Amino acid sequence: MNKPLRRIAIFCGLLILALLIRDNYLQYVKADDLADDTENRRVNIERYSTPRGNIIVDGKAITGSVESKSGDYKYKRTWTNGPMWAPVTGYSSQAFGANQLEKLEDGILTGTDDRLFFRNTLDMITGKEQEGGSVVTTLNGAAQKAAYEGLGDKKGAVAAIDPATGKILALVSTPSYDPSKFAGNSDKDAEAWNAVQKKNNPDDPMLNRALREVYPPGSTFKVVTAAAALENGEVSGIDDATKTPDPYQLPETTGDPLTNQHGECENATLKYALMVSCNTVFAKMADNVGNEKMIEQAEKFGFNNPELDTPVRAAESIYPEDNAPQNAMDGIGQASNRATPLQMAMVASAIANDGKLMKPYMVDQLTSNLDPIATTDPEELSQAVSAETAQKLQEMMEAVVNDPQGTGSSARIDGATVGGKTGTAQHGLNNSEKPYAWFISYAKLSDGSSPVAVAVVVEDGAANRDDISGGGLAGPIARDVMKAVIDSKK
Amino acid sequence: MSSTSNTSTHHTSTIGSIGAPSRRNTELALLVFAVVIPVFAYANVGLAMNDEVPAGLLSYGLGLGLLAGVGHLAVRKFAPYADPLLLPLATLLNGLGLVAIWRLDQSKRLSNYAEAAPRQLLYSAMGVALLAIVLIFLKDHRVLQRYTYISMAGALFLLLLPLVPGLGADVYGAKIWIKIPGLGTLQPGEFAKIALAVFFAGYLMVKRDALALASRRFMGLYLPRGRDLGPILVVWVMSILILIFETDLGTSLLFFGMFVIMLYVATERTSWIVFGLLMSAVGAVGVASFEPHIQTRVQAWLDPMREYTLSREGVQDGIVHSEQAMQALWAFGSGGTLGTGLGQGNSDLIGFAANSDFILATFGEELGLAGVMAILLLYGLIIERGIRTSLAARDPFGKLLAVGLSGAFGLQVFVVAGGVMGLIPLTGMTLPFVAYGGSSVIANWALIGILLRISDTARRPAPAPAPNPDAEMTQVVRP
Lengths: 490, 479
Fold this sequence. Notes:
The complex is a heterodimer of chains A (490) and B (479).
Chain A: H1 2-29, H2 31-36, H3 41-47, E1 55-57, E2 60-61, E3 63-67, E4 75-79, H4 82-89, E5 92-93, E6 97-98, H5 100-104, H6 106-110, H7 117-126, E7 134-137, H8 141-151, E8 156-161, E9 168-174, H9 187-195, H10 209-212, H11 222-231, H12 270-276, H13 279-289, H14 291-300, E10 308-309, E11 313-314, H15 324-330, H16 341-352, E12 356-358, E13 363-368, E14 371-375, E15 380-383, H17 387-402, E16 417-427, E17 433-444, E18 452-458, H18 469-489
Parallel strand pairs in A: 1-7
Antiparallel strand pairs in A: 1-2, 3-4, 5-6, 7-13, 8-9, 8-18, 10-11, 12-15, 13-14, 16-17, 17-18
Helix pairs in contact in A: 8-18, 11-13, 11-14, 11-17, 12-17, 13-15
Chain B: H1 3-9, H2 24-50, H3 57-78, H4 86-105, H5 116-137, H6 148-160, E1 168-171, E2 174-180, E3 184-186, H7 188-213, E4 215-218, E5 221-224, H8 229-245, H9 249-267, H10 270-288, H11 292-302, H12 304-313, H13 324-335, H14 359-392, H15 396-420, H16 438-459, H17 469-473
Helix pairs in contact in B: 2-3, 2-4, 3-4, 3-5, 4-5, 4-14, 4-16, 5-16, 6-7, 7-9, 7-15, 7-16, 8-9, 8-10, 9-10, 9-15, 11-12, 12-13, 13-14, 14-15, 14-16, 15-16
């Protein structure tokens, strides 16, 4: 009987071996996948087991942590003025996960990031509770507030950038939501969460319009068209008359010709055309430049970049390959080109920064106990236009604001030079829906430096379509944001 | 014993080991470790969870020490040549199990467990008492041979108990429990395991020649005669019935597997294994085709995440969906190589049965890969010591009984550990000695008692030849 016994012994050994192999597979090979699985509640338990690190604006925390009463999670996230800051911070909920900075910098905020290893080890030795690091943002509290209050209960977005560095100064989207309302995991939190979901709320408050929504840029895009015309030598000077008929028959079409709403646009100069926002001049200019060169110029300003990370990824702004009539309409921002508010702020910032486009970013530093562990350095994305062209564009945009005939007079600021461009983007089938009011601008101080460029879009301009409502609705908001930045520099 | 094995057994056969050391002192030294290690683990849990050495440390340490001491004294007195490893191994596992159960008692999520550890200690004491009783009253395991058919009747009775209306309890789909008013629940299957091993050993010892020799050769296999197929068919049908009426895949597999192992050892015919595998495959697939409980278990094994989601969403489709399988996998994964440390994991997320069927996941999370491998190796050692006992046994009944019990023990460890780790479909079974549950602990201590008895008989020095009374009487008659 001994021979089968030996075989049974081997068989039982193999059973144990199979268990050992399976265990190695589970706890070694698959260990990290299982441990970091977002459905694995330990991930959240860990995340909320210590007070979460804070997100800092102007040296003050805009987030906080409170001890929560609910069983599994020790701490709960709080926000000061959640709706205003939500487009920057995102949410961090025990029940519904996290997004934006709260998600992207989770390692630092939770304190599990490798860069905090030294601090954590020290804390372990000294017996201190592990604490998350802080995320210091580039944002400007006053500008953010001006933008948020300026939009009020209108639907829209504001993005403001420091042209010289690319620092994002304001990032607002309305209507917004208060992430504090669903930071926990109670039924009340679930109710608040459901209330702001798009399927239950047509206003889609969770949508970050400043970064994640693309709009037809309307007349603000004429700045890009002007840049392309100047860079490609289609016009010799901004004060030379262009050969433009009024009305203008779009290339390869026979229908109604393109008209203007204001001004004397026939053979107008580039400067005058931008000032009163001539459609005919810029549509013809875009046609003269051609689709290929228009795409090239738009891309230099940051269009067609699917991976623009601030570090929160911005939606891709688009200037597509188009046929000639569409391309001409793209030149006045009324065809298939689309831009995020951030993208249009980048356009204004590149012009204000003598043609150099800086990469927009909103995380300045990651710190542990306010000791910096990583600092973001400003990064040049491209030379969008030559310094010379930039000067010309500035002159034109300043005329839009300062000239009595200009459309952007609402953005004037005492003690600073403002350059801007209005826009009213029509959309919907046969322009049936309410237009979007746009305003992009920058401000320059007497020393020639430019501290801020901004883009404002108001979605439901109670707008009189004939009016260049960008100047009326969006302009004052842009002015307040720029003024807030200038005042905070003093 | 067959002639072929004689050549290869001479080095393990203990027949010739006259004057072999009893190894009782080795056992005692090992027992010290088996008590001290869990005591440290217990202190560790208290320090990690409440920042203090637990108040119950002394009574716990004394309790476990007392159990080990009683077990040791009983062995020293009544089975002095018994295997020295079995008792320390079982004590260590029992002690670690108590630590894990106590640790889960502390969990706030599982408030209903609050008193499990003291009860488990009581069960363990009853188990060790049963071990002592076995050693005291079962002077020779061959006595059990007399109770072959009584054992069968007893085993069938025990297995059928959960089906008695009013007595059985359906726990998450498996009907393997009975409720005894005032005493709690009992898993009669654990005791039936031992009774069945006795029956199979007694029955096969008698029938093995007929089963082994009367066969026809066909395609390299020895086919048994039709009438000899009878017993295996009966056991097979019984397993299938368990599967259908108690919907318990584990018990069914355990009994059938045990029978096939013993049949193979008794007859040395590989054909029985082939038949056994075929029949269990047919049985399992056949039953699974119409039994939703089994289907759910298989689905949960193939896609635990889906079961988890269904359970979370509270899908009502007449089947109990459970998130446990996925929770157990997460517990193992979160433990990683070295674990979180005792008392610092979240294995209590598993919820129901975290301290019984799923207790290995707690070790997985808190002691990590290293801890689980150590525990699996402890089980491996028990199994192999059991089979070694079988090899050393001098009588066929003892051999069969020892291999049956060890094989069943091994299958049980494989079924439950493999189930919890997602290697095979999950089935409700307790991890011997470690999992919470009176029936399991008591029955397994009795199992160890029987193995100790067999090994004592096997290793005991052969009695000196009795003086031959004829020697003196025979006279050489000189002319």
